[in-house]
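ok so for the tutorial part 2 we go from a plain amino acid sequence to predicted structure tokens. step 1 is just haveing the sequence, like this:
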Amino acid sequence: MKQREQWTSKIGFILAAAGSAIGLGAIWKFPYMAGMNGGSVFVLLFIFCTLAIGLPILLAEFVIGRRGQSDAVTSLSKLAPKSKWHWIGWMGLGSSFILLSFYSVVGGWILSYLGRALLFKLDLTNYSNLFNTIIANPVEVLIAQAVFMMLTIWIVQSGIKGGIERASSWMMPLLFIFFIVLAIRSLTLEGAMEGVRFLFVPDWSYLNGKTLLMALGQAFFSLSVGVTAMMTYASYLSKEERLGQSAFNVSILNIVISLLAGIVIFPAVFALGQSPAEGPGLIFVILPAIFNEIPFGAFFMIIFFVLMLFATLTSSISMLEIVVSTGIRSKYNRRKQAAWLFGILIFIVGIPSALSFGLLADIQLPGGTFFDFADMLTSRFGLPIGALLISIFAGHVLTSAQTKDELRMHPFLHSAWKFIVRFIAPAAIVIIFIAAFF
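step 2 — the prediction. this is what the tokens look like for a chain of 438 residues:
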């Protein structure tokens, strides 16, 4: 029987963990949320909340995962035998399953745009109409979703070393390079400094409770905590690696990518007189229109959608890995079969979400369409409840001796972390959870 794999290097783990966190949330949602909440003040609060609240919960997942050295369900069962805490793992599996079922739909949209860009078949006159046409076409969205899931399955089936770590080790550096190229191009546009001021010069009139709540929510979700993804990744980590340093590096990478996304988008949006608060249209409608109006726009558009594909894939492989890791348990020789089995099941479950803007657009569930309902189940329930329980488990169930053994940090820092995961983080999550309904 095969032995459980481990990351071959610390940087490989950090890049994979950062890739899990850095997806559409950092590249699409962060600029959109910043645009809706005053820009720079939101950015400052987001950075504070990421380091003060998100980082401790991320570290809690790392501690549980490496301590258990197995999938989330088994790890929690080992650490709290004869209890119900292992249900956090099952909840994470369910959330990841549903999350990937509609996340893969967006991945398919990106593939559709990238394919058109590569074949020079993008409609250069009406991007809004193009977007609506793509998402309403049942054949195209299902084929694109299937291709995206096949890419995800192909990476995960190859294991930690040959699949996830190898893919993340070249996709993440390329993502940084592409972002820097796009940021430089965006900053050279006439009138770009207005976007820079929006992003970095504070308008203190937006410093209020609502902006804080939005920033806290963005920090929480952008770090990919609550679905046991980071717990699963940390279970493949050797005992020699320092968890605190790894968690800090992942958090900083997430902040840097989010800021780069803002630097790419806001200067270009303001330079061409567009609104920064356009939601999904910021990527699929406004940005292609912007690329169409600048020199070498077709080239930069291809780079952007390749970047989007990388970011989406690095998140999707972590979601599928949660399901596969739990499914195979200690039977590591069954990884390939499990990856294809669960990947196909996720694709099937995601079909209603893919058809939510076409054939099934008239069917309404709580929260809206099938796509909206799946999003609501995970973002409003699965992730915040999962993160709350993880924080409570790390703060109240794990002993100080166990956490000290895993963290190996200064006693003051350990005490500060323990206080945050015991009291501050749960309170913050409850506030976000309640705010989602009011």
